[in-house]
């Protein structure tokens, strides 16, 4: 059992992880007008890959035999979870608020829960089902801007629709991580970052050639640097270390803080309006994930 000292360090790592991930949506919103979404994704992963490669090459050489064996899978991880997800997220932020994006993003754990149930027959409890429905209702409420009747009429903001696609992409990536090979985190991160960079570059070239792209100014470069260093690298390292110290069940609960930090940052930095339906959606999403986590962690009683 981890000591109280190491637990406090783990809590700090995991809180910073949630803060950096929540800040990703704020950075994407600040990027609007300073660097276009696909170009931002490409620049982000170029920077992240160069940073990771600068200290990971010895580990990559040691792991190369296993890397080659799993290379198609690792490249697919980087393509979907790192590149395509962020392209969709940053594009969504050109059309909707950062508060909406962070709340909708928090629906990912429930999508993973549903996929595991449908594809792999994962056993579920009543608490997990209720938690799933609560979270989905919270995300739907956010996408519909507080009016669920808009969903029936398919009247959804373009940005919210793109963000829901991003959630599906990352949910698929998360489910596929069950096949992740046992490689050192440096090797995993470097190969996946390389894949994200290679995937994002053609999108950025197309964006610029089509006339819809914008090359980064100083603000755009600062945003790209933040997204590369903090959400892309440090958050992943802190999360891995925090989970190592206190376990995945306790560690994963800190992801619930992402929409909280994202919403607070959007209000403080961007001056976005916070509506009553946002508060209700946060309660539903976070409460639903908490309930599902408790239901998953409670052993099923035997007997009648």
From TrEMBL:
Bilayer disposition of the protein: Multi-pass membrane protein
Q: Which residues does the UniProt record annotate as the domain EamA?
A: 10-142, 158-291
Transmembrane ranges, per UniProt, are 35-58, 70-92, 98-119, 126-144, 156-176, 188-206, 218-239, 251-269, 275-292
Which InterPro entries does its entry note? AA-Vitamin_Transporters (IPR050638), EamA_dom (IPR000620), EmrE-like (IPR037185)
The cellular location(s) given in this protein's UniProt record come to: Cell membrane
| GO cellular component assignments | plasma membrane
The UniProt keyword set, sorted, is: Cell membrane, Membrane, Transmembrane, Transmembrane helix
Q: Does the keyword Lipoprotein apply?
A: no
The name this protein goes by in its record? DMT family transporter
Q: State the taxonomy lineage.
A: Bacteria, Pseudomonadati, Pseudomonadota, Alphaproteobacteria, Hyphomicrobiales
């Amino acid at each position: 059992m981890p000591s109280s000292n190491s637990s406090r360090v783990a809590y700090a790592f995991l809180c910073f992880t949630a803060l950096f991930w929540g800040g990703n949506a704020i950075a994407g919103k600040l990027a609007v007008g300073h660097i276009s979404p696909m170009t931002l994704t490409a620049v982000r992963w170029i920077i992240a890959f160069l940073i990771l490669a600068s200290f990971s090459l010895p580990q990559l050489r040691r792991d190369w035999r296993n890397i080659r064996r799993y290379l198609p899978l690792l490249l697919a991880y980087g393509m979907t979870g790192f590149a395509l997800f962020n392209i969709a997220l940053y594009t969504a932020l050109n059309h909707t608020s950062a508060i909406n994006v962070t709340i909708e993003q928090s629906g990912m754990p429930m999508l993973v829960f549903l996929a595991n149930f449908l594809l792999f027959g994962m056993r579920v409890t009543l608490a997990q089902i209720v938690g799933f429905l609560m979270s989905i209702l919270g995300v739907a409420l956010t996408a519909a801007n507080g009016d669920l009747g808009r969903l029936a009429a398919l009247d959804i903001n373009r940005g919210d629709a793109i963000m829901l696609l991003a959630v599906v992409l990352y949910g698929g990536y998360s489910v596929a991580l069950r096949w992740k090979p046992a490689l050192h985190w440096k090797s995993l991160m470097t190969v996946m970052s390389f894949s994200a960079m290679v995937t994002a570059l053609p999108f950025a070239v197309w964006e610029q050639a089509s006339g819809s792209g914008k090359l980064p100014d100083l603000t755009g470069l600062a945003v790209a640097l933040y997204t590369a260093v903090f959400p892309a690298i440090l958050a992943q390292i802190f999360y891995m270390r925090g989970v190592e110290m206190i376990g995945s069940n306790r560690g994963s609960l800190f992801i619930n803080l992402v929409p909280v930090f994202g919403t607070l940052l959007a209000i403080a930095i961007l001056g976005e309006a916070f509506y009553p339906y946002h508060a209700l959606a946060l309660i539903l999403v976070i409460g639903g994930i908490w309930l599902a986590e408790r239901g998953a962690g409670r052993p099923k009683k035997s007997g009648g």
